[in-house]
Write a structure and sequence with these properties.
Blueprint: H1 17-27, H2 32-47
Helix pairs in contact: 1-2
Length: about 70
């Protein structure tokens, strides 16, 4: 599976202490950004925005063996 790289933007968000504690317990202190990104992407995908406009696909969805390369 190819690795996809995205540009990252640094920002500051203010979280309630209880929200931060839950995120820290679930993801660990160093992975909170990844968890927040995942939550936001899933939220907007459900809303039908551009993030959710295309369904998820993999190589099994391709038409012939040449497309699998």
């Amino acid at each position: 599976m190819p690795m996809v790289m995205f540009m990252a933007k640094k920002t500051t968000i203010l979280l309630r202490d209880d929200v931060y504690q839950v995120l820290k317990e679930k993801a660990g202190a160093k992975n909170i950004s990844n968890l927040i990104n995942q939550i936001i992407i899933e939220y907007f995908a459900k809303e039908g925005s551009m993030l959710g406009a295309m369904k998820k696909v993999d190589t099994s969805d391709l038409r012939n063996h040449r497309d699998h390369m």
